[in-house]
């Protein structure tokens, strides 16, 4: 595959992962919680927002890694680039009107969850490759 084509694939897959995360965030934060997340929100609301953030990050990182084939972490990193750009925009423009610590902690949680999703796929892929070489059965944990 040509270099330009590899770069375009990397960008496209990174964008897919990012858009999946954005969709998850909108569904949880705007639709389910009706935009009522702020540092002084009830702890149940903050817990649901955190859970939605973690799940959307895991999904975006995992899907990008899965689409990335033999380079799962490279494609997860592409998602993290888009998240970084988005995070910089949100913080600089103060889009949510929240304190800096709140935005940074949300971004850090999202980025860690995204990286974990990519890592989960890498572990799964490595186990699949090992078992296909050795003929051993996979443990049910990551099937």
Instruction: Tell how many strands the DSSP assignment holds.
Output: 0
Rounded mean pLDDT is 90
Instruction: Tell me the number of structural domains.
Output: 1
Query: SSE order in H/E notation?
Result: HHHH
Distance between the termini: 30 Å
Biggest beta sheet attributes: none
Oligomer: single chain
How much of the residues is beta strand, in percent?
under 5%
Low-pLDDT segments, ≥5 res: none
Shape: globular
Question: How many DSSP H or I helices?
Answer: 4
- Binned, the helix content reads over 70%
- Determine Rg (CA atoms, Å): 17 Å
Secondary-structure class: mainly alpha
Quick structural overview:
This protein has 143 residues and is mostly helical. It is built from four helices and no strands.
Describe the structure in your own words:
The protein is an all-alpha fold and 143 residues long. It has one domain (3-137). The chain is 78% helix and 0% strand. It contains 4 helices and no strands. The protein has helices at 3-32, 43-67, 72-93, 100-134. The protein is globular and about 55 Å long.
């Amino acid at each position: 595959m040509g270099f330009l084509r590899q770069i375009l694939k990397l960008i496209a897959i990174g964008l897919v992962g990012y858009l999946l995360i954005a969709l998850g965030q909108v569904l949880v934060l705007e639709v389910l919680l009706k935009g009522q997340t702020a540092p002084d929100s009830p702890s149940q609301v903050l817990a649901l927002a955190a859970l939605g953030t973690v799940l959307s990050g895991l999904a975006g990182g995992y899907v990008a890694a899965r689409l990335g084939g033999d380079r799962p972490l490279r494609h997860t990193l592409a998602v993290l680039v888009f998240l970084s750009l988005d995070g910089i925009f949100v913080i600089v423009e103060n889009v949510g009107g929240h304190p800096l610590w709140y935005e940074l902690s949300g971004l850090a949680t999202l980025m860690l969850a995204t990286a974990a999703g990519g890592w989960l796929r890498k572990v799964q892929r490595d186990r699949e490759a090992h078992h296909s070489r050795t003929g051993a059965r996979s443990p049910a944990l990551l099937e």
